[in-house]
Design brief:
By secondary structure, the protein is α+β, with helices and mostly antiparallel strands. Helix content is 49%, strand content 23%. It has helices spanning 5-29, 34-59, 68-83, 104-119, 154-167, and strands at residues 88-93, 122-135, 138-148, 171-176, 182-189. Helix 1 packs antiparallel against helix 2 (34-59), helix 1 (5-29) packs across helix 4 (104-119) and helix 3 crosses helix 4 (104-119).
């Protein structure tokens, strides 16, 4: 079944929206005011509900497998547009990757959130390196942001993404080096191929 181009666009827009809600919830929680913490929790719950509802709508029309490179390409484009700052993007997307064992909406949310974490810290002239590859029985998305400002709340900001990826039977790691470069690695299982 061929997907509508509008559905791909809708999936990208929803991923952006959910990323912004999640980011705002984190900012509110960091203010330290108890009332603001409650509002941050409400926003996080609403984001989760929105993701679930939209996911079920999109997934009715989508198979339980999807193309990593297509979704990564759309996420990179939308992320660069949203940043509004001039950055360098280097893409190293492997060819002939197997399909991922999840729905397009799940993958779009995970990729979009990973992009927000990696690219959101970049300043003018910063560099984002995006790599996809196959690895054993899974697929890997690697994001490296170079030349960004240090984020002292990085661990807290990435908890939602790590939990979401774990729910997809995957793994997510975030790390940084002494030079301030940030690394986000998302590993996801590939879809099983059913022989006819």
């Amino acid at each position: 079944m061929k997907r509508e181009p509008n559905l791909d666009h809708l999936t990208t827009l929803l991923g952006q929206c959910l990323g912004r809600i999640d980011e705002r919830a984190f900012q509110i929680q960091q203010l330290g005011d108890e009332q603001d913490d409650d509002l941050g929790d409400v926003l996080e719950n609403e984001a989760a509900t929105l993701q679930e509802l939209v996911g079920s709508l999109v997934d009715r029309q989508s198979p339980e497998r999807c193309d990593l490179n297509r979704i990564v390409g759309a996420a990179v484009e939308s992320c660069v547009q949203e940043l509004g700052a001039s950055i360098v993007v280097r893409q190293r997307l492997a060819t002939d990757l197997p399909q991922i064992a999840c729905t397009p909406s799940q993958l779009a949310y995970a990729v979009q959130r990973a992009m927000v974490i990696a690219a959101g810290r970049l300043e003018v002239g910063g560099e984002l390196v995006v790599t996809t590859r196959a690895d054993d029985d899974g697929l890997v998305l690697e994001l490296e942001s170079r030349g960004g400002k240090r984020d002292h709340h990085l661990r807290q900001r990435t908890e939602t993404l790590c939990e979401f990826v774990a729910g997809m039977r995957g793994n997510c790691r975030i790390d940084h080096d002494a030079f301030g470069n940030l690394f986000v690695v998302v590993e996801l299982p590939q879809a099983l191929v059913v022989e006819d």
